[in-house]
């Protein structure tokens, strides 16, 4: 598999505004933010899409949710609320094929999304 831009960020070969890191997860600011806080949380292994999650790698979802809870509290947005989004394949408008959760916070978000 060709490396994605997120592999390059993981290897620190290209810069990113990293706001969270632990053994399993990296969190960095989205370059095209859709809210005052827009952070992408990614697993430190390549899982291309949500469809590729299985028993062998599903724990990364748990780790990402734990990371998001930690970060939301740390920046004082846990009680205000936020949105977590995962896009999958063409209809979901996924553009980077290394799964990621978008963490959006800092303003009243619209619902339903477009
Ligand atoms: P998705 O459309 O769900 O695949 O989301 C990919 C996200 O990655 C988009 O919101 C992009 O703005 C973001 N993105 C792409 N390249 C970078 C980068 N080098 N650093 C940070 N965010 C990026």
Question: Any chance you could write out the topology, listing elements then pairs?
Answer:
Layout: H1 5-10, E1 18-21, E2 25-29, E3 37-43, H2 59-74, E4 82-85, E5 101-105
Antiparallel strand pairs: 1-2, 2-3, 3-5, 4-5
This protein binds adenosine monophosphate.
Adenosine monophosphate binds next to loops.
Task: Summarize this structure briefly.
The chain has 114 residues and is of the alpha+beta class. It contains 2 helices and 5 strands, in the order αβββαββ.
Number of helices: 2
Unreliable sequence segments:
none
What is the overall shape? globular
| Portion in strands | 15-25%
Please give a structural write-up.
This protein is of the alpha+beta class. Helices cover 19% and strands 22% of the residues. A hairpin with a 7-residue loop joins strand 2 and strand 3. Bound molecules: adenosine monophosphate. Adenosine monophosphate binds next to loops.
Distinctive features:
single chain, 114 residues, alpha+beta, five-stranded antiparallel beta sheet, binds adenosine monophosphate
